[in-house]
Structure formats: C-alpha cells, structure tokens
Amino acid sequence: MGVGWAWAVAAVLSAAPGGVQVVSPLVKVRPDATPKGAKEAHLSAARGECEGTQLVLPQGVTRVTMQPLALKGPGAPLTTDAWREAYLDVKTPSNGEGKTGPWPDALVPLSAPANPKHPTVVYVEVCVPAKQAPGTYTGSLSAAVDGKDLPAVPFTVEVQPFDLPATSSLPNSFGISLYSIAKAHGLQADSPEAKALLREYGKALLEHRVSAHGMGMDPPPVKFQDGRAVLDWTAYDAEMGPFLDGTVLPSGARFTTADVRDNRKASTDAEKTAYYRAFQKHFEDKGWKAQLFFYAKDEPKAEDVPLVKAQAKRVRDAGGTIPVLVTTALDPAFNGSVDILTPIINCFYPREGPQTCRNVANAATARTRLPPRAKVWWYQSCMAHGCTGGPPPDKALDKAFSDWASYMVDHPAPLNRAMGPLAFESGVDGELYFDTVFAYNTKKDVWTDLFEFGGNGDGTLFYPGTPAKLGGTEHQPVVSLRLKHIRDGLEDYEYLRLLTSLGDGAFARTAAKRLAKSGYEISRDPAEWEAVRKEVTERIVKRQAAEEAKRSGRRTSGGTP
C-alpha cells in the first residue's frame, strides 16, 4: 500500500483482552464467531460518501458511551456517528445458507437498553461533505462500557480528491407507507406526528441513496372541469416537494423516481387520462427531475394482461412520457404495454438445476425485444432465497435458491451489498424493491420477528424506534445494517461508473466481476471487496489527475479549457 492508504481489514490483529477490535463492516459479528480485527480504524472515502466500520467491544455489556470525535486534517474537522448493533433472534433460516440464532441488524442509539447476552458491537460512520478538502484526517475514539474506560482507538480517514453525486446515478424505488409506519409506532396516520415521522423515514432512505414510492399513499384530490383534471397539490407538495427539489438534505440529494398515485375519483378512461396528464404537467411545471412512473401491475398473471394493456393505453393517451412499469419476466403478451420491464434478478442469470425464472435473458437481450425507449430494471423477491423458509429437503432446490444477492438478515453482508456492483456489470437501468416497512403492518413484534415470504427481513429494512423501545420521548426510524450495505453497494456503483467516465471502463467491468461474477457468484471475502475498492480508487485518482493535467496544458497553451 502507498502512503496514506489503509483499510479496515488491511491488518488482522487481535486486540488486547478487554480492548476494542476494529472489524470490517462486511463481517456480521455473531455470538458463535470470534472475529479478529485491527487495533486502529483506517477508512477511505470520496467526497459525498459515507463509510462505516465496526468496533467490537468486550461482551456482557449493558451500557456503552462514546466521546464525540472530531477528525482533524487539511480541512474542516470530520465528525462521526455511532450506533450499537441490536440482534434479531432468527428462528427459521431464510434458506440452507441461513442459520438460527442472533444476527446483528438494527442500529440503535448507544443509549438504548442493551442485551448483555449478545456481542457488543458499535457501528461507527463518517460522512464526508461534498466540498471537504482531500487528505488525511486523524483522531482518537474514546469509549466506555458500563462506566469503565476502554483503550482509545486511533481513527484515520483518507478523503479522496473526487466526488460522488449526492443523488444516486442508478434510479431506484423502494416502497414505504405512512400507514404501516403509523401502525408500528402507535400513531394516528393523519396526525402531524405521523407525517413528521414519515419525513424522517424518507430522509433516512435518501441518506442511503434510496428513493421511495408510496410514502403518504394518498393521491391529490381531483375535480373534473370541461374534460380537464384539476388537482389540489397542497398536501402532496408539502410531503413530496422537499424530496423532489433537493431541500430535505443539506447535500441536495433528490429522489430519482416518483410513482403516480392513482385516484379512484377518476373513474372513466377519459378522466384517468386527464388525471395522468395533470400529474405529468405538475412535475414539469415544478421542474422536478425525478422519473415519474406508473406502477401498472405487480407480477401479473395471464388473466391480468387485458388490465395491463388498458392501463398502459390510458397512460399513453395522456400524450406525455410517463413510463408504465410492470414486474414481469420477458413475455410477448405484454409487448407494447411495458416501458419499464422489471423482472426478478433470477431472470438475468442462467443457472443449472431447478429453474426459478420462466424466461432468462440479460439486460442487453431484453432490450432487443422491447421498444427503443424502454428501460430494464430488476428487483429481488423471495425467489432469491426461497419462499417457504428453511432449507428445502431437495438439495438441488436449496442450491437454486442459495447464493443470490439478498437483503436477508441471516445472509452474509457481501450478499446484502452486491446489487450495486451487479447493476453496473449487468447494465440494468434501475432497481425496484416492494417495501421497506412491510412487517410494520402485521401483528408481530418487528424487533423479534422479521420472517416474511420465507425470509428474515424480506420487505423490511427498518425497525420502529418507539420511546418504549429506545427510551426518551421521540419516535424515530431505526435503520438496519442491511440498509448500510445497500448504500455501500450503490456507492460501489458510483465508483465504477466514475472510473468508466474517465475512460477506464474495461478495468471497472473486471473489478465488478471480481466482486460478483453473476447474481449468485458473489465474493464472500471482505478483504477482496476492500482490495477492489482500493484499486478502483487509485485508478480514479490517477485518471482524474491525468485529465486535470491535460486541461491545464490546454489552458497554458492558450487552448479552450
């Protein structure tokens, strides 16, 4: 490694007994595994990027405290955020590669009550502002457990001289619902408190480069006058405007997409078309850059074909550019009615054994069978882990449902992170995910049971942070470790995309393949992920410096910069 380069898993050193070990975020620390880590924390991050690491503290701890940390360097001090990892007790594995027992997932405030039977792990994160001066930033992190001070952990962050965009370059849309949030938090959905909480959930998604569909769910009120749809946008704009105009976060990040909220008061074909036309015009008038789309049907059956075609016609008759999204594999029955084809990830990669998709085709092949402007997205479903839960008796079937990129709690962290590199390598145009708070709308305790659709965490990436659970008086969203991994994968995508824009696409594609050859051939080795990121970073810096030298040369010689 060159001067200034150091990575969270670069050295495998045991911390002193009773001390602190720094462990890669790509290792899920479980009670039956004793990880070895570094004595110091070393991270690298681009401007506009967040990077995390894990501190494994002594076990049997009920209370963790940390002193505020300011990392000093050539620019303004960098600050850190820290959460304790809470554990989900998995009772039924998601499939044969899952396991029962405690798994880390919820990231709770350090002040929240702890279970001394679980490992004591703190997730520490540094987010680098867009205009941060590049260079080395250092500090020392001080922690105490149950009132006893631990040895300080030297902390270094290398800020790279390039930027990641605040808004994801890969369009995506993950579901969320005000009504599910209100139910889990014990609030009235129409209360100001619930609406403010929805905003916090939306902010948490956007902080992790994720855009949302659903949100408040309610469509704008509509009246029809002389064939026109007149919508009252007051409530919609108050809710969605900050996410679409870039004012909800200091970074200026925006949702990449927004769904058309259908309105039952638009009952005839003509009224529906007028309503869609008004929806599109409002976005144009506001100057919102998000891709507005119409979610026509989820996993339609043969009998749903007429419905999808009728919906598509009404949207098209609006005379605009709202694309129609359908979650389906390639199917000639939907030809001409789908603008965003969205198959499950299984449909992009051929695999021996029992087939989990009826029509496998990569993104390039799919585009040859679609209209010129059509897009190809993808999504995860229970077909990536099996929809029944636990290892099936048929080993061939278990293999067919194993190893896929996965958002399940009881799967390795690299599988949680892999969708970003896979999106780059595959060339898909976007990602859909059906929900992030699905379990909120059930009768179960989300903190103890996330088993849905045969998987632990399928459709749920948050935990309800109620005062009863966390203490204090405020309701808050509790993000999952898996959401951090999803964000890191989207940042991987940005690195690979940036390197390609600098003329090194061949290396970027090779790097992506080292991490994930296919949707089910994903490296489980944290050191390999760190090595690839390091090499990609070095090439970006080198390429960018060369580009800057060329521009400087042109300016010096009197050319146009």
Feature tags:
24% strand; disordered N terminus; eight-stranded parallel sheet; globular; 13 helices; Immunoglobulin-like
Shape: globular
CATH fold-level name of the largest domain: TIM Barrel
What's the rounded overall pLDDT mean?
94
The count of helical stretches stands at: 13
Give the N-to-C terminal Cα separation. 34 Å
Describe this structure in words.
Helix content is about 30%, strand content about 25%. The chain is α/β, with parallel strands linked by helices and about 550 residues long. Strand 27 and strand 28 form a beta hairpin. It has an eight-stranded parallel sheet. Strands 1, 3, 5, 6, 7 and 8 form a six-stranded antiparallel sheet that branches. Strands 2-12-9 form a three-stranded mixed sheet, with helices on one face. It has two domains: about 140 residues, Immunoglobulin-like (Sandwich), CATH 2.60.40; about 325 residues, TIM Barrel (Alpha-Beta Barrel), CATH 3.20.20. InterPro entries: GH123_cat. This is DUF4091 domain-containing protein. It comes from Corallococcus exercitus.
Layout of strands and helices, then pairs:
Blueprint: E1 21-23, E2 41-47, E3 50-57, E4 64-66, E5 70-71, E6 78-90, E7 101-108, E8 120-127, E9 135-141, E10 143-145, E11 148-149, E12 153-163, E13 172-177, H1 178-185, H2 192-207, E14 212-215, E15 222-225, E16 228-231, H3 234-245, E17 257-259, H4 269-286, E18 291-298, H5 305-316, E19 324-327, E20 340-341, H6 363-368, E21 375-379, H7 395-400, H8 413-417, H9 419-426, E22 430-433, E23 451-452, E24 455-456, E25 462-465, H10 467-470, E26 476-479, H11 481-501, H12 505-515, E27 516-518, E28 521-522, H13 526-556
Parallel strand pairs: 2-12, 13-14, 13-22, 17-18, 18-19, 19-20, 20-21, 21-22
Antiparallel strand pairs: 1-3, 3-8, 4-10, 5-6, 6-7, 6-8, 9-12, 10-11, 15-16, 23-24, 25-26, 27-28
